[in-house]
Design goal:
Nuclear Transport Factor 2, Chain: A, GNAT family N-acetyltransferase
Length: 102
């Protein structure tokens, strides 16, 4: 993802769309870490291509998500995922965060 999604509506839209692209999620770990963090580690696939995913959430003092980082691997699957996200958000500002078909 290029840039930063700002605001709950954009972040929610991106997370929901990503989950729709995943064919499955096989969680290895999901839970709190530290005083204000939450961590997920899971395997997934998109169009049959494997993805390893790590999600790190930092909460604010009210306990709400303040910062979210999502890492996908391997690179080949990440590039496919990014192109699909670009297609799904075509015509919206969120499309600019993802790789356009070249």
């Amino acid at each position: 993802m290029n840039g930063t999604a700002r605001g709950a509506e954009d972040v929610r839209a991106i997370v929901v769309q990503a989950r729709e692209l995943y064919e499955f999620q096989d969680f290895k770990f999901a839970g709190d870490y530290g005083e204000d963090g939450f961590l997920e580690d899971y395997a997934a696939s998109v169009q049959g291509e494997p993805l390893g995913v790590v999600v790190v959430v930092t909460r604010n003092d009210a306990g709400n998500a303040q910062h979210l980082v999502v890492l996908h691997r391997p690179r080949s699957s990440l590039l496919l995922f990014s192109r699909l996200m670009h297609e799904k958000f075509a015509g919206t500002p969120n499309a600019d965060h993802f790789l356009a078909e070249s």
